[in-house]
Amino acid sequence: MRNKFFSSILVAAAMLVGAISNASAGVLYTGSGTWDSFASNTAFSGANKSWSFSFEIDNPTSNPSSAIVDFHYSLNGSLTSLSASSIQYFSAAQGGMFNLTLSSGDVISFFNKLGTPAIDIGSSGHLATGQWAVDLLSTDSHGADINGAGVVTAVPEPSTWAMMILGFGALGFFAYRRRGLVAAA
User: Fold this and answer.
1) Is the CB of residue 133 less than 8 Å from the CB of residue 151?
2) Does residue 6 sit in the same domain as residue 66?
3) Range of the domain at 41
4) pLDDT band for position 10 (50/70/90)?
């Protein structure tokens, strides 16, 4: 009787954790690199200046999506006041990767590194995870191109990892308990 009660409590807890996990499943994006030596000085770029960003987005998501959470953008190591207003993903047939629209109205286009195959990381609404070398393109207020290069990484949110580890732990516990019950019989 005690084993059935304990198993029922564990199953109910697992279902609750699963429901919470599905409600907050997301992807954490980080990126860093440098703008080229001809890049204009703008709120987000500068000649030979480093850039980095991070943000979270729900998975699955709409395309384009304005559900960007916790956006941070740094230029040359200094955090800027820019925020992201939307992200639009492109299929491999359209060249892959994404456009990031900033609160300033500027759009930064992220492309697969020249010479590598185009990758669709989210045009269907289901976000891929991984690490990609990217080329960047934007324009300044005079219409001149601003180019850069870097790396973008997308990983599941820490809560997703925690749920996966908890699930493996529960499976291990059930296997341990089952082995103990078989030995006692």
Assistant:
1) yes
2) no
3) 27-156
4) low
What are the tokens at 83?
């925020």
Query: What CA–CA distance (Å, rounded) separates 9 from 1?
Result: 13
Q: Evaluate whether 31 touches 52 at the Cβ level (below 8 Å).
A: yes
* The one-letter amino acid at 174: F
Give per-residue pLDDT as tens, 104-161.
999 999 999 888 888 899 998 888 889 999 999 999 999 999 999 999 999 887 666 6
Q: Do residues 43 and 127 both lie within one domain?
A: yes
- Strand-pairing partners, residue 87, are 65, 100
**Three state DSSP letters for 33-84:** EEECCCCCCCCCCCCCCEEEEEEEEECCCCCCECCEEEEEEEECCEECCCCE
In DSSP terms, which residues pair with 134 in a beta bridge? 112, 150
Residues 141 and 169 both lie in one domain: no
Distance of alpha carbon 109 from alpha carbon 60, whole angstroms: 21
What is the rounded radius of gyration, in angstroms, for the C-alpha atoms of the chain?
22
> How many domains is the chain partitioned into structurally?
2
